[in-house]
Amino acid sequence: MTRGFKRITAAALLVFAAGGASADLIDLSSWTPLTLDFPGGQPAGNWVLEGGNTAVRQIVNADPSFFRNNLNLTSYSIDGSWQVLETGGDDDYMGFAFGYKNSSNFYLFDWKQGTQGYVGRTAAEGMTIKKFQGATGSGLVDLSLEEFWENEVSFGDMTVLETNHGSDKGWADNVLYDFHLDFNLVPGEIHLVVKEGATVLWDVTVNDMTFTSGQFAFFNNSQQNVRYAGFEREGGVTVPEPATLAILGFGLAGLGVLRRRRPR
To answer: How many C-alpha atoms does 181 have within 13 Å on its Cβ side?
Structure first.
């Protein structure tokens, strides 16, 4: 065993990848779609890549649908723009998920264009930061459509963390909005900014320690023709999942055995 190899520590093995500041737009070609399929609900989302794989449009009026980056990230900033390419045909939800562990456990920023009742709950016009903490923890959805639709009070496995509701708080058709998220740069802190041009529509900080890492995903619910483009990420360390940590632990133990057995 070489001296260089002996210098590898457990701490070093815990970090698989780090993304530094970069002006490059995120290539979305490795991202994957997921629609939560509720009985009697709407079709699956259809995420269509555009712009050299740096933009994507979800073109179906679908049940809650995600487009995930498949990276278990912590401590990062992400910026981009999105808009609904519509002419008054629908008024539902668009947004982003982060700290995404599985389809029952994640944070969600969603934005409703107009107040509307559905499945026995009322969605108010405006923006909400929510936490979903389902019972399964296994990747299988343990949430209901009501939990996705409600945005005024906590309900079921959904907790409302912060709101920005009211008249003229909804998104507008064919308007480009800018999005900025700082996730866990300060431990347990979520900082979100939404802008239209130079106008800040919402600048909010939420403190919650439930999820300090996870995937980032584009999101919409019962809303077609939402286009996400020009996203960049600064920072972000890819954190191994617990099962991977266990494998690393066995590997490190094995290295110790090999080192002891090697004759001088």
So the answer is: 25
